[in-house]
Amino acid sequence: MVQFKNVFTGQESRNYQRAVTSQKSLRAGGKHNDLENVGYTARHHTFFEMLGNFSFGDYFKEEAIYHAWNLLTKEFAIAKEKLYVTIYHTDEEAATYWKKIANLSDDRIIKIKTTDNFWSMGDTGPCGPCSEIFYDHGEQVKGGLPGTKDQDGDRFIEIWNMVFMQFEQLDSDNRIELPKKSIDTGMGLERISAVMQNVYNNYETDLFKEIIAYTENIVKVKVEGEAKFSYRVIADHLRACAFLISDGIMPSNEGRGYVLRRIMRRSMRHAHILGSSEPLMYKLLPKLVDLMGTTYPELRRAEDFASNILEQEEIRFKATLERGLKLLDDETNHLSKNSELSGEIVFKLYDTYGFPVDLTEDILKAKQISIDLDGFNNKMQEQKERARKSWLGSNESKTDKMWFDIKAEFGSTEFLGYYLNEAEGKIL
Ligand code: ATP
Ligand code: MG
Ligand code: MG
Ligand code: MG
């Protein structure tokens, strides 16, 4: 909903009051980070497509509930007995509409007190209660109803979140009603696909099955047992990497580029688990482009470029992956469950072998060993300090000083464009 933020606050207006969207979403860093869930739950991806409907001061709670219910139970013909909803515990209005429109009994309208059911942009700004719709995949799947201690299982899966944007938080004590109440909803395409295709696991839908089968054909390890998880992670990460690159992001050691690099390296580790000795990810790209390139032409446009990046990045990391894994093994073999790996080793893996911290964490999860994050951060700080000191004495810093000196003596100059020769008007 980022593109609509200012429309909700009234700072910006559009010539429409309703919108529907299908958005590329990535949750692999920052406030929403599902990277560590991928492969472990049936419902989380790093990259997914989020469907939404929006109202900017137009329809509100009653109509939003009506439309959601109508779409799920009439258009999609999902059995009512399979659906549960949550509301914010004080939102009596939402409860009333759910009863009136969907005729849901009280035990199917679950009141939640946490911020899971109260959306806000930050400490101030527009905010409001949410109502979420859950699908019951049946008792053969482990997991409890939302609000219970087993809620993280995959039996009751959240398919749709509706935010009723009705307040504005002015400061910590003051909240007012918004003059124009709005709606912002999000439904995961992969989750609703699973429901519609009668599978509980997103990775068993047509969106993923073909990629996994294609990978199996190359890797030649059966998709079963532990290998299944690696195939899922690879399929998920392939989508994330390809979409990030096609949107102009390059692997690097900072910011968005590092989010991409972390995802890439995780997938490479899983390729390694499957015994793939050659770079793998770039070989899977044509299949993805085949499947999604018509809907997302940017994927097709970037194919050659992305293929190159994926291959180069994999070649580069392969050189240290095995040695890093060996070091990690040696360092943890003597450690017992629930112990901690020292920050120094985690730093060495990061600095010398190119292991992002979350990759190390992920590898150790299976052994139930955690990492000393504070120790790692201290080492990182020390390294930055060393780098700063050596920069001060370097040629680079002397060159920079020279430019500053020139500027001090002659003042700023105006950039006139890339003319090789102004008389001839040749442009470089
Ligand atoms: P969950 O509790 O399952 O992690 P969420 O509450 O974090 O989901 P929202 O932020 O409410 O999810 O996002 C709106 C919708 O987007 C969800 O109802 C779900 O259908 C979908 N969704 C959210 N995160 C993911 C993800 N990592 N992968 C696939 N779909 C997702
Ligand atoms: Mg979540
Ligand atoms: Mg949730
Ligand atoms: Mg939610």
TrEMBL record:
Q: Which GO terms describe its molecular function?
A: alanine-tRNA ligase activity; aminoacyl-tRNA deacylase activity; ATP binding; tRNA binding; zinc ion binding
Which parts of the sequence belong to the Alanyl-transfer RNA synthetases family profile domain? 1-428
Under the heading Pfam families, the entry gives: tRNA-synt_2c
SUPFAM superfamilies in the record: Class II aaRS and biotin synthetases (SSF55681), Putative anticodon-binding domain of alanyl-tRNA synthetase (AlaRS) (SSF101353), Translation proteins (SSF50447)
Name any cofactors this protein relies on: Zn(2+)
Q: Which InterPro entries does the annotation name?
A: aa-tRNA-synth_II/BPL/LPL, Ala-tRNA-lgiase_IIc, Ala-tRNA-ligase_IIc_anticod-bd, Ala-tRNA-synth_IIc_core, Ala-tRNA-synth_IIc_N, Ala-tRNA_ligase, Ala_tRNA_ligase_euk/bac, Transl_B-barrel_sf
**Keywords in alphabetical order:** Aminoacyl-tRNA synthetase, ATP-binding, Ligase, Nucleotide-binding, Protein biosynthesis, RNA-binding, tRNA-binding
Domain remark from Swiss-Prot or TrEMBL: Consists of three domains; the N-terminal catalytic domain, the editing domain and the C-terminal C-Ala domain. The editing domain removes incorrectly charged amino acids, while the C-Ala domain, along with tRNA(Ala), serves as a bridge to cooperatively bring together the editing and aminoacylation centers thus stimulating deacylation of misacylated tRNAs.
- The protein in question is named Alanine--tRNA ligase
Record gene name: alaS_1
